[in-house]
Each structure stands twice: as C-alpha cells, then as structure tokens.
Specification:
Blueprint (H helix, E strand, L loop, with lengths): L19 H14 L13 E5 L2 E4 L4 E4 L12 H11 L11 H11 L8 E5 L2 H16 L3 E5 L8 H4 L15 E4 L10 H18 L4 E7 L16 H9 L3 E5 L24 E4 L10 E5 L1 H10 L10 H16 L2 H20 L5 E7 L2 E6 L4 H14 L2 E2 L1 E3 L5 E4 L7 H17 L1
InterPro entries: Aminotrans_3, Aminotrans_3_PPA_site, PyrdxlP-dep_Trfase, PyrdxlP-dep_Trfase_major, PyrdxlP-dep_Trfase_small
Cofactor: pyridoxal 5'-phosphate
Family: Belongs to the class-III pyridoxal-phosphate-dependent aminotransferase family.
Length: 434
C-alpha cells in the first residue's frame, strides 16, 4: 500500500516490526476491511480498554489520549455507560412515537444556543448532520453553490466528500463547491477582512458560472486547516458577505463544540455570529452514535413543508439518554471552566518549551484544542517523527494542516494537571529524541 500523503502519520505496511499477534490481526483486517481504511502511527496502536484520558493495550500499559474528542467527557464515563445501559434495557425506538426524553433533552440542549436557533433535528453522525444542512440550504435559498476552506473536512457522504478537500485527490470537489484559503493567524485584526475578500471573490466566480449560493460551511476552529482561533470575531465579515449574497451560514461544531474551546460552549459564539444552522456529531454521545443539526425555524420551514424527515436511529431513545448524560456531565463537572483553565496552563507550558529551542514556531487554538506548528527544513517529516516519538512515550496525538506540520492536540475534556505534566514531560523527551 502506498503511503497516504493526506496523513502525516499514516501507518505504512512493512516499515515496522509488529508482534506476531498484531501482524496476524493486520492481515485479517486488510483481508476483510479492504484497501480504503488507514491506521495511525508507524507501529499501530492496539487498545483494548479505556478510562478517563487513558487507553490501555493488551498488556495493561496506559497511554495518554491527547487526541480523542469523541469521548469528550472521558472514555467509558460511568454515568454515560449507566444511562446508555439503563435506557437500552427498557426501550430503544425511533422518533415517530411520542416520547418524553427527546423533548426534555431538546428543550434543555437548545437553551445553550442564542435566539433564533430553536429547532433541533437528530442524526447518527456529523456527516449526516452536515448533509441534512446542505439539503435544507438548497431548499431555502434555491441555490447550489457551497464555499469551504481549502483543507476543510465536513463528512463522508457523496456530497460532503466533495466538500472536504482534506480527503485528498481521491475525493475531488464538484462544480458547485468553491474553496477559499483558511485564515493564517498572521494578519491580526485584518484576518477578518482578508477572509471576507476571499468569500467575495468566490461569490464572484459563482456568479460568472451562473451558480446561486446556498451555504458557507466553516469548522469554527479550522481543525483540518491547521487550527486557527484568533483574533476573536474574524469570521463575522465573511459570514456577512455570504449572507448578503443570499446564502446561509453553517457552523460545523463537530470538533470545536461541547466546551472544547473553553471560553464558550460553541465555537461560533466567540466570533460574534449566530449561524443559520449548527451541526454537531461525535462528542454528543461520548462515542455512542448520536448527532444533530440545530436550525433557525424560518430556515427549515419550507423544507419541512416539502419533505418529511425521518432517520431510524437518529434520536432513538437510547441515543437521547446517552446525549443527556453527556450534557449533564459537562455542566455538573464544570468542564467548560476546567477546559479554559487547563488549556491556558497548556498554552503557557508549550510557549515556555518553544522558547527553549527551534522546533516549535507557533502555538494556536483555544481551550483544549491546540495546534503546535513545527519548524524546520522538513516540517511534515519532523511532525510525523514527533507524533510517533510521542506514541513511544505512551502519548497519543495526531497532525493537522495541509502540510501535515501541525501537532493536533485535542484530548478528552477530563484532561487535568497530572495529564498535562505527563504530556509535557513526554514532549520534551520526544523533541530531544528526534
């Protein structure tokens, strides 16, 4: 299998010595799952158990998970497991029956969003939520044109793969998809005006081709583009320009949502904009497949009149019970404030480390979503070596950005001071090792 150029730390068969058991499992995986799947790390990781911020291999060795936002409140959180099991033991059914728990959760959850975002539609995955947003946008606007950033990732359906340049050349965008550069974080207060100008340029190209705008999709911390969070508010001019042309703004909160950025529950809030639709996915059920699209009533009204929405597993009773447990934990354990505090300490430690040498050239992000730009003649290769060196130190992270030269640090929100000390000690050693 050739090396995947879209993954800086992809596993390449034949370049690592694996145990006999893992070698046999790898062969069985290839034989059954086929050629499209990818593994992380030079030497693949084989976890068998998780707890909090730790994953354990077959020998019981603990690895610090500094990458997994899916288990946002920590792996196998007992309250999540209990809520899931309790509801599954009573009833799991779809949304076409009257149920208390889906309405109770919807009311509770929607209270975290600004007006007029007051409807919620449940799906199983973030991809489904983003796909549903596209369908609604096309009906509301009558347009088909979409703008995304140059290394965005929004999902795996046929429509969304064409809107996800980070998937590489194997998923080419179609004629209705237009890309703009992501912010660079290098232009200060001009960042917003530069992004607005790029949106207007894409809109002009759309108009030349007779394409009417439908949706501007933005992951509000630009996760796949390299993680860009500052200055606050830089997204607003671009959104204003796109709305002036008749399009809708979709805030993709699959990665930056659920207290991840520390300052606000949702990434879009720090930009001073209210989206037309907000998609969310993985963290909502801490690993259980539940996701959603929050939408303005006026945006979804015509779609609802034309089309009945139904998703057999989206919003099923067990999914909702699980999502409610996750939501309760985020609030009861004060994870928004803890994320801000731990993230601030994390940034300070990284900045101190950066001053000690020439490996780190920039640190970006907010809360527990941090991007560390790696310098050097071969930053991609150096980043991959660091990711794999950290894995040998029992620390799991990955890489981001179009050049694969940004350490992507995005641990469960249960990450605390002890985990931070373990991480920083391992990172210092890994930098020396490479």
């Amino acid at each position: 299998m050739p090396q995947d150029q879209s993954m800086a730390n992809a596993f390449v068969p034949g370049q690592a010595i694996l145990s006999a058991g893992d070698e046999a499992l790898l062969q069985r995986r290839t034989d059954t799952l086929g050629p499209a799947y990818r593994l992380f790390y030079e030497e693949p990781f084989h976890p068998v158990r998780g707890e909090g911020v730790w994953l354990y291999d077959e020998e019981g060795t603990a690895y610090l998970d500094a990458y997994n936002n899916v288990a946002c409140v920590g792996h196998c959180h007992p309250r999540v497991v209990e809520a899931m099991a309790r509801q599954a033991s009573m009833l799991t059914t779809h949304t076409r029956y009257l149920q208390n728990n889906i309405v109770d959760f919807a009311e509770d959850f929607l209270a975290s969003f600004p007006d007029p975002l007051s409807h919620i539609m449940f799906t199983c995955t973030g991809s489904e939520a983003n796909d549903l947003a596209l369908r609604i946008a096309r009906v509301k606007t009558g347009g088909t044109g979409v703008i995304v950033t140059e290394n965005a990732y929004h999902g795996v359906t046929i429509a969304l793969a064409a809107m996800s340049p980070s998937l590489g050349a194997g998923a080419p965008k179609d004629e209705n998809v237009f890309t703009i550069p992501a912010p660079t974080g290098q232009h200060g207060e001009q960042e917003g005006e530069i992004m607005r100008a790029n949106v207007e340029k894409a809109l002009a190209t759309m108009a030349e081709r007779g394409i009417k705008p439908a949706a501007l999709y933005v992951d509000t911390i630009f996760s796949s583009d390299g993680i860009f969070s500052h200055p606050k508010g830089f997204l607003k001019p671009a959104v204003d320009a796109f709305r002036a042309a008749g399009g809708l703004f979709v805030a993709d909160e699959v990665q930056p949502g659920f207290a991840r950025t520390g300052e606000e529950m949702w990434g879009f809030i720090r930009h001073g904009v209210v989206p037309d639709m907000v998609s969310m996915g993985k963290p909502m059920g801490n690993g259980y497949p539940v996701a959603a699209l929050v939408v303005r009533p006026d945006v979804v009204a015509e779609f609802g009149e034309r089309t009945r929405y139904f998703n057999t597993f989206g919003g099923n009773t067990t999914a909702i019970a699980t999502a409610q447990a996750v939501w309760d934990i985020i609030r009861d354990e004060g994870l928004l404030n803890k994320t801000l505090e731990t993230g601030s300490a994390f940034r300070a430690d990284l900045e101190s480390l950066a001053r000690e040498g020439d490996v780190i050239c920039d640190i970006r992000g907010s809360g527990l979503f941090i991007g560390v730009q790696i310098a050097g003649d071969d930053p991609r290769g150096r980043t991959a070596r660091l990711v794999n060196a950290l894995k040998k130190k029992r620390i799991l992270i990955s890489a981001s950005g179009p050049g694969g030269d940004v350490l992507k640090i995005r641990p469960p929100l249960a990450f605390g001071a002890d985990a931070l000390d373990f991480f920083m000690s391992g990172l210092r050693e890994a930098i020396k090792d490479i």
